[in-house]
Amino acid sequence: MSFLNLVGANTRIEFIELKRYLPNTLSLIFTFYFIFLAMFFGINVIGDPQTADANIQYGIVNMVFWYLTMMTLQNIGFTITLEATRGTLEQLYMSPYGVWRILLARFLGYLAIHSVVVILLLFATMLTANQWLNLQPTIVIPIMLLTIIGIIGVGFMLAGACVIFKQIQAFLQILQFILMGLAFVPLNVAPFLVFAPFVKGFDMIRQVMIQGHTWTDFTVLDFSILIINSLVYLAIGVAFYLKCEKIAMSKGLLSQY
């Protein structure tokens, strides 16, 4: 129950931040929407008319994935940087909950809020393009939840780097393009990306939304790869963060910015 209270408190914090700086929040959402519009009109003008519908559907799904992963992962890095800037990073380490639990709670709260934004963005892009995907919540939601486990692991890796280096904004900017590649490139084009975080989950959701796959179209191997991949990245991420935390504490880096 205490962890649920922690998640609830951090969700309220994230919501208040987004509401208090509403112009920035809206501009962020509209930026992604306008990027989609540019891609949509580009496909219609210079793309092959015979494959335009499939390309647009593919673009819708990938844009939504890109937005969700980029916003949630960057939030972890900016959270540490912001706390260090404000001089409150050390206070977090005085909490009896442990900083990794606080970061996890903030991650889940931010993810919950932006999941609502993603749904609105998804319907807005489908309405604009007049392309309606196969939304099957009974399949998409479980696969997405398993995929999020891997995203959390990568988020802890970024948090660990921020604890030591404080400023990693340049890397976070580069991360946007890395995430774009992971979100846009399908596994049948680059099968080796199955070892990358959350790519397998995104590929399975694409198959559901675009090709109309159901539970029976996936094998036990598909779900095994997804679960193992997510758990491995979660374990690596948490272990990496805890190691960075020990290094920062032993060198007295928590109070430095």
Characterization of the model:
With 257 residues, the chain is an all-alpha fold. It has one domain (2-250). It has nine helices and no strands. The chain has helices spanning 2-20, 22-46, 52-86, 89-92, 99-129, 137-165, 169-184, 199-211, 220-250. The longest helix is centred in the first third of the chain and has 35 residues, at 52-86. It starts with a helix and ends in a 7-residue tail after the last helix. The model has no long low-confidence stretch (mean pLDDT 80).
Q: In summary, what is this structure?
A:
The protein is mainly α. 79% of the residues lie in helices and 0% in strands.
Return the structural class. mainly alpha
Helix share, percent? over 70%
Contiguous runs where pLDDT drops below 50 for at least 5 residues: none
Q: Report the end-to-end length measured between terminal Cα atoms.
A: 34 Å
Order of helices and strands: HHHHHHHHH
Indicate the mean pLDDT. 80
Rg for CA atoms: 19 Å
Topology record:
Layout lengths: L1 H19 L1 H25 L5 H35 L2 H4 L6 H31 L7 H29 L3 H16 L14 H13 L8 H31 L7
Helix pairs in contact: 1-5, 2-3, 2-5, 3-5, 3-6, 3-7, 3-8, 5-6, 6-8, 6-9
Features:
mainly alpha; 9 helices; globular
